[in-house]
Amino acid sequence: ARERVVVCEEVFELALRLPDVVAMQTRQPSLEGTGEVRLRRLVKEALRMRPDRIVVGEVRQEECLDLLLALNSGVPGLATVHANSARDAVTKLCTLPLLAAENVTSAFVVPTVAATIDLVVFVDRDPTGHRAVTEIAAIPGRCEDGVIEVESIFRWHDGELVRADGFPPHLDRFARVGHDIAALLAERYRPTAPSLAATNGHEVLR
Known about the structure:
By secondary structure, the protein is an alpha/beta fold. It is built from 7 helices and 10 strands. Strands 5, 6, 7, 8, 9 and 10 form a 6-stranded antiparallel beta sheet that branches. A hairpin with a 2-residue loop joins strand 7 (143-144) and strand 8 (147-157). Helix 1 (39-46) runs parallel beside helix 2, helix 2 (63-72) packs across helix 4 and helix 3 (86-95) packs across helix 4.
């Protein structure tokens, strides 16, 4: 199906090759200090363009709050964030929105992250400069006492990405389009490393 994808970036980099893409980038202020367009404004403007999906090139500061609010409104999307691991990325998504205003608290942000973020794909770079996906983690949506539960679906072990025992959330959404993800993961990808099975695939973030 044809979908409208709205992309918000500081500098045009993604260049998505899709039929219906609206790409926007930030603008620095003029010498007089006027005309600045920040990433926060672009994310807000994106919601007025009737997007089917929103893509934010990279979240670094308070625009993370606007992204979470957009995702929480029912618009699917994705973004990138620099972090040391998939779990650190979730932690960062919980802290960056606090930069937006003094009345934005962890009591609001943490459960919002748990409810709106489904998957984290972590890409690492080895000493030779080669990049590879080293972990795919799921956020099942469970949050208690400021703790978000994170499950590893795949993680790096002995030079390859192997199956852990987590599952993506919202399996019913896959089922509606004819994909039985639980059966696929159970049949084609089985935990191969004893150390992975021992962890039970569950870790939490504070």
